[in-house]
Every structure is written in C-alpha cells, then in structure tokens.
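Record type: monomer structure entry
Structure origin: computed from sequence
Chain ID: A
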Amino acid sequence: MSAYIVNKESIERIATLIEYGIGQDDRLDWARRELKEIGYDVDIDKGFQEFAQALYTMNYDAVNQRYDENSQVQIQKYEQRLRTGTIFQDLKTVKCFLYQCSEGNVTESPLYLFIRDIERSIMNTIIDRIPEYEKANWE
C-alpha cells in the first residue's frame, strides 16, 4: 500500500462538507457538535482553519509513519469553498483521504474516527435516496 498527501482542494472539500452538510436531508449538526467536543469550533474561521490544518497534519503523520520519515508539517491557509460536485464526489474524496491516512497509529485518533463517521453518513444518505431501498420493507 502506498500513501500520499492529498491535495489542498480535498482538505477544503472535506472541511467545507462539515460547514454545509451533505444536503437538505443531513445538515451534519451532529458532526459540528462532535467536532466541538474534540476541540474544533468550525462555526468560526479560526476553528475552520484549525480543523482543516488538523486534517492535513493527520494525513502528513500517516505518510511519515508509512515511510518512516520525520518531515515537518507546513502551515497552510484554507478556504471554505462553495459546494461543487456531487455527493458521490464527496464520498470519493473522503474515502481517498481515509485511505491515505490509514497508516500507523493515525487510525486510532479521534479525528480519523470522526472522518470515518462522516464517510458512513454520506454512504447512508446515498443509500436512503435509492428508490429500491425506499421501496424495501422495514422488517
């Protein structure tokens, strides 16, 4: 398995996803509350910046652990982006990010587990919108 640092746009897409939610059905209010509990108040710009930087740092830590390196994390400025793309792009971005962070002890961190919850939330939203699922019996 190889790992790499995802691009800045991926970090911004994930951080912005928390800001705007998955769609009208799931505004991710639970996610905002959970983020506050682990130290990121994304309702303010400073909190958004800290959250985005933490995502980048987590990715960087995983790559360093994968390749037994000690490269220093760079501080970046992140921007909230207008929602572009589809829910499928959101899911693919989150899945790629998690894959690139799945090295060493990173997978045990609260932030990694939080992003896994976001991934499940996106998948559940997609499934809930499938007509065949809607028609299936709740038994």
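Annotation 1: The chain has six helices and no strands.
Annotation 2: Residues 8-135 form one domain.
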